[in-house]
Specification:
The protein is of the alpha+beta class. The chain is built from three helices and three strands.
């Protein structure tokens, strides 16, 4: 059985995605919670969605201009989309 991902696991994946986009010369990357959730082997549903969203918010750097593109009414959910500037 695959262990449930922790906040640090989601943060590491976000960091890896940001690095890949930067290598490609992208000015930013937009990450959607559902896609990040799936990348860590979690099926659709809310198994670790709150943890995923917590990690996404924690990885924002306001000084760099990172911002929320869209968020569900309660702030955490599969549609959360954040733009991280590189």
């Amino acid at each position: 059985m695959h262990p449930l991902p922790r906040v640090t696991d989601f943060k590491e994946e976000i960091d890896a995605l940001k690095k890949q986009a930067k290598i490609k010369g992208e000015p930013y990357i937009e990450i959607v919670a559902l896609e990040l959730h799936k990348r860590l082997g979690m099926p659709a549903g809310n198994h670790r969605m709150a943890t995923c969203c917590d990690a996404m918010y924690a990885m924002m750097i306001n000084e760099r201009g990172d911002h929320i593109i869209s968020a569900p009414p309660k702030g955490k959910g599969s549609t959360l989309t954040i733009r991280y500037n590189l």
